[in-house]
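Translate structure to sequence.
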């Protein structure tokens, strides 16, 4: 008769030993990796939370690395710009010193000119040589490029465009009324005959100046005299294109804050100041400019002279000139891309003729 002997204590010992070996392997794995959870069976819910945290940590670490890298690029560019700024300050000093014609000899002026030329060459060199990892930072490589610009737009400038990478912004601009300068007219004829000497006071945004014109003064001399002080008073003078017997005085700037005042102080027979080429005569006339009226993407823009703004990031500058010609109303469609800008005109079918600026301007996106 045969029998099977079972060593129960040995089997228990083997099972306990196997469990201990398994726990030892898990502990060694955790010690070697430094992780409590190495696989899904260790803690399924904990593994999900752990992987999410690891992903966020990796993203934050990458963002910090990118920010550090960007800071290094900016520091390099800032260093180049600071060097250029210092050179420009030095250049300004040399120019001011060289303007002293009585105190400098010709040799000293020539030496200053050589130094000025050297500074300009150094500025060009800094602009071309300032780079980071082979990428030049100050030579214009990172400027926006334009393509497909309509012939009516001669100047399109983009300072910055807050757009996601590869995104476009359609900008439709409809000019309802143009921006205008303030203006007044002085009746002179080809030869001024006010009936004696006439003194007028011309006032603009920048100052005031009195002029005295004798009978027989030529219109060209009157225009020249006023233009001599145009930067000081903010008013310029030209011969009126419609009536050549009139001197047209305009503010240098556009918009409702610009003004021109012409006042007859003394002398002269009658009033010689007009509000329009065929308008009313005044002894004292003050005229204000006009802000442009613009729709940008169908929204009424906030206008200041030739500048129109919608919100804080979209601005149209120097586009709304005063000289108009009857044409079909157009809007401007501008597609802005970080690397390419397409601008062209697109007609607006309103069924009526309107006005469009004869003098083209420029578009700026901020």
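Result:
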């Amino acid at each position: 008769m045969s029998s099977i002997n079972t060593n129960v204590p040995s089997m228990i010992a083997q099972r306990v030993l196997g469990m201990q070996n398994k726990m030892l392997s898990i502990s060694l794995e955790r010690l070697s990796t430094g992780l409590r959870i190495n696989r899904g069976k260790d803690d399924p819910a904990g593994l999900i939370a752990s992987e999410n945290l690891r992903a966020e940590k990796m993203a934050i670490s990458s963002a910090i690395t990118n920010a550090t890298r960007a800071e290094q690029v900016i520091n390099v560019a800032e260093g180049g710009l600071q060097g250029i700024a210092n050179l420009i300050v030095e250049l300004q000093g040399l120019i001011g010193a060289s303007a002293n014609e009585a105190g400098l000899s010709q040799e000293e002026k020539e030496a200053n000119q050589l130094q000025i030329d050297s500074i300009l060459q150094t500025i060009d060199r800094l602009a071309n040589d300032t780079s980071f990892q082979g990428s030049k930072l100050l030579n214009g490589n990172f400027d926006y490029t334009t393509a497909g610009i309509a012939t009516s737009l001669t100047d399109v400038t983009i300072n910055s465009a807050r757009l996601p990478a590869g995104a476009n912004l359609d900008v439709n601009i409809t000019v309802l009324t143009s921006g205008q300068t303030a203006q007044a007219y002085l009746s002179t004829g080809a030869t001024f005959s006010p009936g004696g000497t006439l003194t007028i006071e011309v006032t603009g945004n920048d100052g005031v100046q009195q002029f005295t014109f004798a009978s027989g003064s030529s219109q060209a001399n009157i225009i020249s005299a006023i233009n001599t002080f145009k930067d000081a008073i903010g008013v310029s003078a030209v011969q009126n294109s419609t009536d050549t017997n009139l001197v047209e005085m305009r503010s240098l700037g556009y918009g409702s804050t610009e003004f021109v005042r012409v006042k007859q102080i003394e002398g002269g027979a009658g009033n010689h100041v007009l509000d329009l080429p065929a308008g009313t005569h005044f002894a004292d006339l003050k005229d204000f400019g006009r802000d442009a009226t613009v729709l940008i993407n169908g929204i009424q823009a906030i206008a200041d002279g030739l500048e129109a703004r919608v919100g804080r990031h979209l601005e149209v500058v120097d586009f709304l000139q005063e000289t108009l010609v009857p044409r079909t109303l157009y809007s401007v469609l501008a597609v802005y891309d970080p690397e390419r800008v397409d601008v062209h005109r697109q007609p607006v079918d309103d069924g009526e003729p309107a006005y469009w600026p004869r003098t083209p301007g420029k578009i700026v996106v901020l």
